[in-house]
Q: What sequence folds into this?
């Protein structure tokens, strides 16, 4: 068993123990004629603020507040504990009020996007070494442009040296429209091999109309074009690693605002602090 | 693909992803190295800023941008390579920040919108009220503090130290009383009584349970229980507010009974915690009487022959006397089988007239020929209307004094005896005249106004004709003596000879419900079951006992004796619990709402059992001394005809997976005031 798996088991065990302790406290609270929703509510708010601190921690990276990995792990496991406390807080039942529903859906969305974030942050990095090299996301347009220029260089070469129109025609009709932008975003995201298979067929079809020298240049073009496909694959996966936060973070902050409003309503209508 | 990206120092520039703005040409891969400024303005210009080396301008383009250019700077030091201008765009991080702000703003706007009057009650309502409440309650502030109607006050209310859910909001409609928030609605003393009883009966299970948050086990009634501790509102119209989870009870109840089958204590004497109101020995009837040939045709076939569930109240009801018992006990209530057919209500006592005369105590005429007769309990009772005579009456009731032998009795007592006899004569006149004084006297003794049936029974107590005839024979000068006493004169003591022939009646010829004279006594022959006369005097004596009349018990004991004709109390038991005397005219069929702690109802149980399956729960205990339980008035010292029901019997169906085993399935939390006062004394008496 690898150290990583061992550590993960250890963390899960700690989470389970904490969850069981909280469940016991929750029962004790209820048995003491107290409303356990107050206990779980405050705990949820505490966990929620801890989770948000992870985002703030990234803004203050110059402060010695522990490394990002530790914070990320704390964020993941606290988020999972939050799910349990949330279920106990709502009494395992679907809320019936309008505002309660809104709060419920914000929470569920925050949890779902968070869980998806955990999944992709663990699954996607492995993909970056499976197709091509790991590239800095912001530089990808430049790399795409560089590949395009190289391909265009080879096409020019084929005109000058071979007076071939087959390569030019193939480039202008088939390759040029897809070179300027990322393609097959969703297929790459689902790790599909379909884009590669489709272009295999396209290149194989065009070879039949070429002589050996044209095929040689076309193979070089194919190699560069497949680099573009790999680049698109890297782009799709890296983009998702960034874009999911466009849901998770705004929803989380919105959730905090709604939770504070919920807190105000709860205490003003049911009793003093 | 290893040649797209290089991280060499001269081939890889630093990416500042934290910056708000990025070059607008980045998406085409032609972004400039300078990038926009902090305000998002394009800084496009020359690719480099040439420097002067001696008299020559040198290119200063960085290696990252391709190094020194071929042409070099212009003659005036300008750069030939111009950067195409762009329209800078926000970085991903900046766009995400904008989205956070946008969502935050929307949430704040929603919160403000929800607080506004038109939507408030609809939106912030955490859920509709239960069906009955939602039909009556329209506004939040019907239950919550009035200030909650204005959001301006919400923050203040949130930090107030008072509970804004007004308990009065519940008890305005649900009349539970001043102790509504006390545990079980009991006051401190009542709770102590219950607690003591539980600690005694459940001592094996009374293990103190640790609870981190609770102070309840020692708090008794000082701890208040808010309505919403158990009744959770705002959970939809179909919510059952009476459904309470078991753990709600566990705070105060130190024994853990979350699971009925394994954790609930064994039943102690369920459901026979006291003797039955009606004395009916199931053991003897089934094992002896019903087997006798002469009653075989009347014998019931099963329990259902006499008992059936009442679907409305849920209790098991028994057949009436008329439909059931009378088949065999027809003659018992009319004294048919008795030698003496009537109840002796009045009898003149034997009197030591010589001693009274020797002590100059005037009582007037007294019939001759009385042989060791004593005052009847009824006469003792009626004479007790004179408070002064009560000590003497107590002596007579206790047989400590005999009116026939007054020799040696202290003069003061003899004076009282004289007053007693004269008071007796006054009483006879009141009765004979049927005056309003008679009813008033009885109601004074009972210390209550009698109901109409009882008043009629008292007013028709004695037929005037028979009484006047008897009194004229016994004491001819009864009225004259009264006149003399009123004028302060004394009548001479004198024994009156009596024609005994006139005082004999053949009791066998007296019809039930009639009075008759037998010697110096007046007797009443009971008319049968539900005799108003006997019932009225039993109730009057009971009421007088409660009014601390010390001789009334003698009358009750006399009328309730099983050898007294009528035999009312042969079946109808008399209870005396802590001085509270009650006559049990009906079988104890408590509907669920009148039970103290439990809510058992036979009706639903009978739906799953066949008529002959009563023995699923009720099994005869043939060894029990059932009759022994009725020797005195304590209903809790007894042996039941039936073996106690075992918890296991109930647990066959009452589990979480079958018909439910929550505490409130069988137990009540709210104890009504009327039940508490009477029943708690019974609980204590056990």
A:
């Amino acid at each position: 068993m690898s150290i990583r798996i061992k550590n993960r088991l250890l963390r899960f065990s700690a989470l389970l123990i904490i969850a069981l302790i909280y469940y016991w406290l929750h029962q004790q609270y209820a048995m003491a004629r107290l409303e356990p929703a107050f206990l779980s509510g405050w705990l949820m708010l505490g966990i929620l603020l801890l989770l948000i601190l992870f985002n703030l921690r990234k803004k203050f990276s110059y402060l010695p507040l522990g490394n990002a990995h530790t914070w990320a792990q704390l964020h993941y496991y606290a988020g999972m504990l939050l799910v349990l406390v949330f279920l106990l807080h709502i009494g395992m039942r679907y809320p019936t009020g309008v505002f309660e529903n809104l709060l419920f859906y914000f929470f569920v969305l925050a949890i779902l996007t968070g869980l998806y974030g955990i999944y992709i942050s663990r699954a996607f990095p492995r993909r970056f070494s499976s197709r091509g090299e790991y590239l800095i996301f912001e530089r990808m347009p430049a790399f795409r442009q560089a590949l395009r220029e190289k391909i265009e260089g080879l096409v020019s070469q084929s005109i000058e040296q071979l007076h071939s129109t087959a390569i030019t025609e193939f480039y202008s009709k088939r390759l040029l429209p897809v070179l300027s932008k990322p393609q097959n975003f969703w297929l790459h995201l689902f790790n599909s091999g379909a884009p590669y298979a489709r272009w295999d067929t396209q290149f194989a079809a065009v070879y039949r109309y070429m002589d050996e020298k044209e095929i040689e240049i076309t193979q070089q073009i194919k190699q560069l074009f497949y680099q573009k496909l790999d680049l698109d694959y890297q782009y799709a996966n890296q983009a998702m690693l960034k874009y999911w936060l466009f849901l998770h973070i705004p929803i989380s902050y919105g959730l905090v605002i709604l939770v504070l409003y919920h807190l105000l309503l709860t205490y003003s209508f049911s009793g003093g602090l | 693909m290893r040649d797209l990206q290089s991280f060499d120092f001269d081939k890889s520039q630093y990416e500042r992803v934290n910056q708000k703005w990025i070059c607008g040409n980045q998406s085409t891969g032609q972004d400039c190295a300078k990038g926009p400024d902090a305000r998002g303005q394009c800084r496009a210009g020359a690719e480099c800023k040439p420097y002067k080396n001696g008299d020559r301008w040198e290119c200063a383009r960085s290696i990252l941008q391709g190094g020194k250019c071929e042409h070099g700077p212009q003659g005036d030091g300008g750069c030939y390579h111009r950067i195409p201008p762009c329209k800078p765009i926000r970085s991903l991080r900046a766009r995400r920040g904008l989205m956070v702000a946008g969502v935050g703003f929307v949430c704040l706007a929603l919160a403000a919108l929800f607080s506004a009057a038109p939507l408030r009650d609809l939106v912030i309502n955490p859920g509709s009220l239960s069906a009955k409440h939602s039909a009556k309650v329209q506004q939040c502030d019907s239950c919550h503090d009035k200030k909650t109607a204005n959001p301006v006050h919400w923050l203040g209310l949130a930090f107030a130290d008072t509970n804004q859910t007004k308990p009065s909001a519940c008890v305005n409609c649900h009349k539970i009383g001043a102790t509504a928030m006390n545990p079980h609605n009991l006051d401190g003393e009542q709770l102590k009584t219950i607690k003591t009883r539980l600690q005694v009966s459940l001592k094996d299970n009374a293990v103190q349970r640790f609870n981190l948050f609770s102070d309840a086990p020692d708090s008794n009634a000082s701890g208040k229980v808010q309505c919403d501790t158990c009744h959770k509102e705002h959970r939809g119209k179909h919510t059952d507010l009476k459904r309470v989870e078991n753990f709600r009870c566990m705070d105060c109840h130190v024994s853990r009974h979350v699971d009925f089958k394994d954790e609930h204590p064994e039943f102690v004497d369920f459901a026979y915690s006291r003797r039955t109101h009606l004395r009916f020995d199931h053991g003897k009837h089934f094992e002896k009487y019903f087997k006798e040939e002469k009653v075989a045709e009347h014998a019931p076939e099963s329990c259902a022959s006499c008992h059936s569930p009442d679907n409305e109240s849920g209790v098991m009801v028994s057949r009436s006397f008329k439909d059931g018992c009378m088949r065999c006990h027809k003659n018992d209530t009319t004294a048919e089988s008795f030698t003496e057919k009537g109840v002796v209500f009045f009898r003149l006592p034997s009197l030591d007239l010589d001693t009274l005369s020797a002590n100059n105590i005037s009582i007037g005429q007294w019939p001759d020929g009385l042989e060791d007769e004593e005052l009847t309990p009824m006469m003792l009772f009626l004479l007790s209307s004179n408070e002064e005579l009560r000590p003497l009456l107590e002596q007579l009731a206790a047989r400590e004094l005999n009116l026939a032998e007054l020799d040696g009795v202290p003069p003061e007592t003899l004076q009282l005896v004289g007053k007693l006899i004269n008071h007796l004569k006054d009483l006879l006149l009141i009765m004979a005249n049927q005056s309003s004084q008679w009813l008033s006297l009885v109601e004074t003794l009972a210390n209550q106004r009698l109901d109409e049936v009882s008043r009629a029974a008292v007013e028709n107590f004695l037929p005037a004709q028979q009484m006047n005839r008897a009194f004229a024979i016994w004491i001819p000068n009864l009225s004259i003596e009264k006149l003399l006493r009123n004028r302060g004169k004394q009548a001479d003591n004198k024994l009156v000879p009596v024609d005994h022939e006139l005082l004999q009646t053949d009791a066998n010829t007296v019809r039930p419900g009639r009075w008759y004279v037998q010697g110096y006594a007046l007797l009443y022959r009971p008319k049968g079951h539900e005799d108003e006369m006997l019932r009225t005097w039993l109730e009057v004596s009971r009421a007088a006992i409660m009014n601390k009349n010390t001789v009334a018990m003698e009358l009750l004991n006399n009328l309730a004796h099983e050898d007294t004709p009528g035999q009312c109390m042969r079946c109808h038991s008399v209870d005396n619990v802590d001085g509270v005397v009650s006559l049990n005219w009906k079988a104890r069929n408590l509907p669920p709402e009148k039970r103290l702690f439990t809510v058992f109802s036979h009706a639903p149980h009978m739906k799953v059992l066949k008529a002959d399956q009563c023995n699923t729960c009720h099994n005869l205990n043939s060894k029990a001394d059932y009759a022994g339980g009725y020797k005195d008035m304590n209903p809790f010292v007894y042996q039941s005809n039936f073996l106690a029901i075992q918890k296991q019997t109930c647990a066959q169906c009452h589990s979480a997976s079958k018909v439910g085993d929550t505490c409130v399935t069988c137990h009540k939390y709210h104890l009504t005031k009327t039940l508490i006062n009477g029943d708690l004394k019974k609980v204590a008496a056990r």
